[in-house]
Structures are given as C-alpha cells and as structure tokens.
Design brief:
Number of helices: 0
Helix content: under 10%
Bound molecules: zinc ion
Number of strands: 5
Shape: elongated
Radius of gyration: 22 Å
Strand content: 35-45%
Largest sheet: 5 strands, mixed
Strand order of the largest sheet: 3-2-1-5-4
Order of helices and strands: EEEEE
Structural class: mainly beta
Amino acid sequence: MAQPAVTREDTRGIQGVLIDVPPTVCGRVLATRGTFEVVVTCPKCARLHRHRGVGIRRAPCGRTYLVRIRGKQVRA
Ligand SMILES: [Zn+2]
C-alpha cells in the first residue's frame, strides 16, 4: 500500500492578516521660514498636530493617520 507523500500545508492565517488602514486627515499648510508644516486636527485627541509633510504620520498622541493637504491636488 503506497502511502501518499506528506504534503505540508502551509496554513498561515491569511484571514488573520489585517491591514490597519489609517484614517485620512486633511491639513493646512503652515509656511514657515524656508520650509512648511502641515497642521492637522487629530481624529483621536482633537488637537492640532504639526507634521513636516504629507503621508502616513504618527501623532505625538500615538495615532497614526494619512496626512493630506486640503483643497490642493497634486498632479504628476
Ligand atoms: Zn492626537
């Protein structure tokens, strides 16, 4: 009796992979000397946080979100 080859199933929890999608917050550009900062209203603590640019940022309160600039669309 031939036994089937041992198939090793890689049962990784695919359903367990959760991508934490950060919320998008729109900020205002605050121009300073030689550079600019983006001021956003934090969806967690409702305070203003400053960031040096757009993208995924982590607030001082620990919240991670996607910073965008309000009313300004960047075209390639
Ligand atoms: Zn905050």
